Amino acid sequence: MWPKLAADRLVRRELVAIEASEASIQKQIDLVRLAKTFHAQPVAIVLCDPASRSDLRRWRCLESTGFRPAHAVAPWQVSELEIERERLPSDLRHEHGPFDIIGDVHGCIDELTELLHRLGYRVHLEGSGDDRRAHVDTPPGRRVIFVGDFVDRGPNSPDVLRIAMAMVEHGQAFAVPGNHDVKFLRWLQGANVRLTHGLDLTAEQFAREGAEFRNAVRHFLLPLQGNRGSKAGHFSGSIPG
After folding, report:
1. 120: Cα separation from own chain's centroid
2. For the chain, is the Cβ count within 10 Å smaller at the N or the C terminus?
């Protein structure tokens, strides 16, 4: 019965609270899946005695099944507990177009700048090394939605990211990552990933970039992962002719 009641509330984007102190691991996983089906954030509040190892294990178990975050609250703190709902970073229903949707750039800087130019944007790239900067003049009222895959295969993934990062920073664009961007981020973080499908070219290009820019790219891509699986679509496009 509770899954239907929860789904009815989630479809209306209402708060759902479920008492699940005796929930099995599978039921916890089912709760997380239900929340994600409706693009909701599954959060756990655990009454947890800090001196109890079993309580701490239960708290960590909830985190491992997908509750982000899992809050540990001591019993004597319950009377002071307040719950405040916050808008998720991927919840952009308050934003309105017109939007220009661009995806699968794959390091092709010339094609990206040409496409932006045709849409009425003006791109400026100046400087070198860590001092290299992008600046974009936008047509009135228009913004870009980048739908992923900034990197790999093309000749200049760093400048593609400079443009996207500058536009997002100045409120001229929104962005979600593609699978290539997620794999590239893992490489930036030192993970042992295979340099295939164009990542070898991106790695070579970023070997010539300074630590400051590499860190900036990490900080740009990391929070975008929270937008994956949201209602933002993934598109592919090209310049006609």
Report:
1. 27
2. C
| Distance separating alpha carbons of residues 113 and 164, to the nearest angstrom | 11
pLDDT digits (tens, 9 = 90+) for 198-241: 999 999 999 999 999 999 999 999 887 655 544 344 333 443 43
Q: State whether 118 and 214 are in the same domain.
A: yes
**pLDDT tens digits, one per residue of 102-156:** 999 999 999 999 999 999 999 999 998 888 999 999 999 999 999 989 999 999 9
DSSP 86-127: ---TT--TT----EEEE---TT-HHHHHHHHHHTT-EEEEE-
Six token digits for residue 136: 């974009």
Structure tokens at 230: 């949201």
Does one domain contain both 106 and 69?
A: no
Residues 6+ apart with CB under 8 A from 173: 143, 144, 145, 146, 164, 167
pTM of the model: 0.69
- Whether the Cβ atoms of residue 160 and residue 135 lie closer than 8 Å to each other: no
Q: How many domains does the chain have?
A: 2
**In-domain check, residue 94:** no
Residues 105/147, Cβ–Cβ less than 8 Å: no
Shared-domain flag, residues 32 and 140: no
Tell me which residue of 176, 158, 171 sits closest to 216, measured CA to CA. Answer: 158
